Every structure is written in structure tokens, then in C-alpha cells.
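hey m, so remember when u said the C-alpha cells were messed up on ur end? i reran from scratch. heres the input so u can diff it against urs
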Amino acid sequence: MLVLFVTLEWLASAAALDDARKVELKGLTDRLKYQTGKISLRDGIATINLPQGFRYLDPASSELLLTGIWGNPPSNSKVLGVIVPSGFEPLADNSWCVVLDYQEDGYVKDHDAETMNYDKLLKQMQDAARQASAARMRDGYPPIELVGWATPPRYDKATHKFYWAKELKFGGGQENTLNYNVRILGRRGILVLNAVAQMPQLPEIEKATPAILGMVDFNEGHRYADYNPSTDKLATYGLAALVVGGIAAKTGLLKGLLLAIVAFKKVIIVAIFGVVAFLKKLLGMKGQSA
């Protein structure tokens, strides 16, 4: 089992970009193909019903945005797409989006939803983050700090939708990173939604969260209630692992992409730290490799 922390590093300012690069980036943004209305995901396992005020980028356009425009390394697996607000400008500093992925790890039991001590869990995660940060610094990288909950975990047992947000401090940066997560539990796996934003955008993301939660869901036959214990796989982790990052080690998105704000003068570096012993003690689960 691995824990993933996201770090954010500044590159040169917009003024340092040469004119040719600016023209190239503008040309790439013009190639993005936005969609509206109803979007089918992963051969019909789920559907996005986009309300007014939101648009969708398919996997090809998402790859163009995340890798071609924002400079993230290519991922081994394509994301399901990206949801953006209307008026989204890829090269703007205040741009934000929601990246979608699907992890077919099996049916995740939610029996621990009402018994989890999130404050205790946060403290354990902060301790692990400090240990990981010390290792980073020994390797010459800037430190990272899990500041705390930006939004404490909330689980809707009726819809089986789970969401929370963490505030991360990266190096000596003046602006902290917002790590906003939504997980939708299904029959055979989880829809993974990660908001890409900075801390000052938290109110905007919070305002959009009800719409985001309402627009994405599994289709009939793939829903949480459709689980058949006789035939369907049971996940080896529970809700706590989703918060800690148990799923992150196996999510293609998190192996090569991003969970923090990106714009044309920023780049994301994803650092994965193997703290197997910590997670075994915390969650009582078998360690897994990425």
C-alpha cells in the first residue's frame, strides 16, 4: 500500500515564456473539443448529465489538456475525461477542473462510515506526511506538509458518495494546494473525481460540489445496490483507505498526472511514498505495491 502526496513547483513566470511557446499553447487550447449534455462513460457503466454551467472534455482532449498544455507526464492509463466550468480558460491562473477516473477494485464496504474518527485519521496521516517529507528533503526535494482538512470527510449513505478536501503546503510556496476528492461507490469499483484547484478557490469548489455530485452516477446494473456477493469481487479496503490514499497507488491518474492546480506557468510533480508499515498498522490491510 502506498500513500501519495502531491507537490507543486513553480517554473518560470508567464513573462519568461517566449512568444513561440505562447503561440503553441494557444494553438493547443484551440484544439480542445468541449461537449455538453449527456455523456456516457466507460462503455455505459456510468453517465454524466452536464447541467448548465459545465462542459466535458473526452479522454483525448483531456490528455491534450493535462499533458500537452499543462505539461504533466503521460499516464499509463487514460482518464475518463475532465469536467470544466463554462468559461474555462486552460492558460488562466485561476482555472480549475475535475478529473475523472474509474478504479475497478471491487465492492467497497461502507460499514465503517459512521465509526471512523476523522480527526485521529488526520493526525496519523500528518505523521506519515512528516516522515515522507523528511525522506524527500534528504533526496533534495522541497518539504511537504499536510496542513489539515479543507473540508472534513462526508459520506452520503443514501447515494454512496464520499467527499473531502485536504490542504497541503508545498515547500516555501505562499499559496497552499487544495486536494479535493470525490469518490462514488459502485458495484465493481469506484468513480474517482479529483478537483484541480488552489486553496483560495475552495469556496468556488464548495459551491460547485452539489452540482458535481449530482451530475455523475453509475447506471443501473453497475450501482452500489446491484452488488451480488455470490458473484462480485469484494475490495480489500474500506472507506478509510480512500481517505488515506489506498486507492491512489493503483489509480492511473495518480501515477502520472495531477491533483493540484496547474496552469501554463506551473507544473505538477507527483511523489509516491511507500509507507507500508504505517498503513498496515492504521488500516489492518495487506500491503500492496503500485
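this time it looks ok to me. The chain has one domain: 3-283. if urs says something different then somethings off w ur setup not the seq
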